[in-house]
Amino acid sequence: MTTPRDLLIVVVEVMPDQPVEQGNLSLALAGAELIDLLQAQTVRLDDDQIVPTGRSAPGDRLLENASSSLARQAPYESVDNWLWRRGRNLSATYVAGLEAEGEFTRQRGRHRNPFRAGQLVLADSPARSDAEARWDSDEPVLTRLAATLGIHGRQATEVAGAVDDSVAVVLAAVEDAVRQLEFERQRRAIEEAAYDNVWRDPQ
C-alpha cells in the first residue's frame, strides 16, 4: 500500500459518519503522493522545485500516473503548484480506485457521508490491516497528514518533527494549502451572507 491509500483508509475508518472537506482531502492525497515519490527517490526537491530523478515510481497505478505527470525539464513545478494541480478531484479518483479494487463498498443509510453516494464501508483486507497498523504506530507522515484533516493520533505533537527535510517541506505545504482553502471558503461564505442580507433588507 501507499501513503495516499493508507490516508484514505484512515479517513474512512476514523471518521465514517463525519464529512471531510473533499478539497482538503485531495490536497492531502497529493501531498502523500509526492512524499511517496520522494521516499522512492523518484523525485528530489531543489528548494521547493520537484525534480524527477529518472527512477521509476513505486509499483502502484495512481503513483505511476502521478509520476508521469511531472515536468521533466526546467522550469520544474513547485510543491505548491503540484498540490493544487494534482490535487484537483484527487479524492474522487482514489475513492473510485479503492472501490474498484474491493477495498471499499457503499452502504445506503441515514449517516452523513463525505462522499455523498452512500456510506463507505471498509473491506476486511490486508490493506486495511496495514493502514490501521501504521496509524496505530503513530507513524509521523500519516499522522501529520491526518492531523491536517482534523484527525488526531495519540502522539501527534510528539512525532510532528520526526521526518526528513524534504518530507517536512511537503507536509508544511499541505498544511498551508489547506489553510488557504479554508480561508477561501470562509471568504466566500461571508460574501454570500452579505449578498443574502442585501436582498432581505434592501434599505
Question: Could you characterize the architecture of this molecule?
Answer:
The chain has 203 residues and is mainly alpha-helical. The radius of gyration is 18 Å and the shape is globular. The protein is 58% helix and 9% strand. The protein has a three-stranded antiparallel β-sheet. About 2% of the residues have low confidence. α7 packs parallel to α9. The chain contains nine helices and five strands. 32% of the residues are buried.
Please write out the topology.
Elements: H1 3-14, H2 22-39, E1 43-46, E2 49-52, H3 61-68, E3 77-78, H4 79-86, H5 90-100, E4 104-107, E5 119-122, H6 126-136, H7 140-148, H8 156-159, H9 165-200
Antiparallel strand pairs: 1-2, 2-3, 4-5
Could you give a short description of this structure?
The chain is mainly α. It contains 9 helices and 5 strands, in the order ααββαβααββαααα.
Estimated helix fraction: 55-70%
What integer is the average pLDDT? 85
**How many β strands by DSSP?**
5
Provide the spatial order of strands within the biggest beta sheet. Answer: 1-2-3
H and E order:
HHEEHEHHEEHHHH
Tally the helices.
Answer: 9
**How far is it from the N-terminal to the C-terminal residue, by CA?**
59 Å
As for the number of domains, it is 1
User: Helix/strand-derived class?
Assistant: mainly alpha
Low-confidence stretches: 156-160
Please tell me what the overall shape is.
globular
User: Strand percentage, roughly?
Assistant: 5-15%
Radius of gyration: 18 Å
Q: Tell me about the biggest sheet?
A: 3 strands, antiparallel
